[in-house]
Amino acid sequence: MYEFDYRQPKSVAEAVGMLAETGGRALAGGQSIVAAMKLRLAQPGTLVDLSAIPDLKGARKEGDRLVIGAMTRHAEIADAPLVRQSIPALAALAEGIGDRQVRNMGTLGGSLANNDPAADWPAGVLALGATVNTNRRAIAADAFFKGLYETALGADEIITSVAFPIPAKAAYVKFPNPASRFALVGVFVARMGDGSVRVAVTGAAPSVFRATPLENALRKSFTADAARAVRIDSKGLNGDLHGSPDYRAHLIPVLASRAVAALA
């Protein structure tokens, strides 16, 4: 690990000032950046630790939305009665992330800012049409995820919270890597209060994406059979030692059908 400076601000404004002053990196749960630093794949001169900022933590209801602070840890989201009551699928998603250590340290905002292609949170955020709030603006989920480890965040932006519309029904099913529990493929299906359907897929491509063929099929018939009958084009999907693009394309409607069946 290379030498670095460590700072711990007490407010978002202070954190933004430190990042602008030093050109450093924000530290959320540290589950990705610290591992990269240990391998000398990352060399931030300064780490600005956001863990001491109270305004970035916790969950609350705002009208018909569930708002979760960016520094709320996965384990806290999984255990929160408000989350379990409002959007049980998010609590289940958080409960299936990594191992206990990762869940006790990793955060919602850190996962979204990192945008790992196999992370779970991007699927929940995109499928629910959530809004990612930063210190500067509100970014719609459809505009937030840009590509492999790439988001719409600017250098001077910090995620402060995520506002999730509360769906009529939602479920997340993933085929996990048995070692890391990252998603080889993960599918989040959401049926919104107005009857619209959104389906987001993680793990299958360089970045999370909406599965339009599945959305169209489920609007016509919200059944497991309808989801299973969809064929997904494997072009552009990931291929590695864990699975080929064709294998991942096959998994997507299978997992979507399981998610719909869980909601029946």
What would you report as the Rg, rounded to the nearest angstrom? 18 Å
The poorly predicted ranges are none
Shape: globular
Count up the domains.
3
Percentage of β-strand residues: 15-25%
Task: Report on this structure.
- This protein has 3 domains: 45 residues, 2-Layer Sandwich (Uridine Diphospho-n-acetylenolpyruvylglucosamine Reductase, domain 2), CATH 3.30.43; 111 residues, 2-Layer Sandwich (Uridine Diphospho-n-acetylenolpyruvylglucosamine Reductase, domain 3), CATH 3.30.465; 95 residues, Enolase-like, domain 1.
- The longest helix is centred in the last third of the chain and has 19 residues.
- It contains 12 helices and 14 strands.
- The model has no long low-confidence stretch (mean pLDDT 96).
- It is 36% helix and 24% strand.
- The chain is an alpha+beta fold and 264 residues long.
- The strands form 4 sheets. The protein has a 5-stranded antiparallel beta sheet.
